[in-house]
Amino acid sequence: MRRSDGGFVTAEAAVVLPVMALTSMALLWTLMAGAAQIQCVDAARAGARAAARSDPPAAAVAAARSAAPPGARVGVAREGDLVRVQVEARVAGPGPLAVRLKGEAVALAEETVG
């Protein structure tokens, strides 16, 4: 008596396809979080450059916000001759998973140079 293995293929596909879909979603979310982290770092650098040029703090915040992910918080602080810009953003993930990303840049104020 010979049995058919046709049902095993269906069962294996029923298990493998959802796993592949979840893995693909996790990879996409990781790429999105990585891109948002790069945006935070770039935004902090843009804000630090603007603040180092002695632009008003509002202009430095605007420069950082223009490069930051949507909904990011921007902070500019002067510490002696240094200007520190922090950009924080929250990236929503699947379900309750969310990540808070942070980028920071420090620049020497130009009026102290030369």
Automatic annotation (TrEMBL):
This is Pilus assembly protein TadE. It comes from the Bacteria.
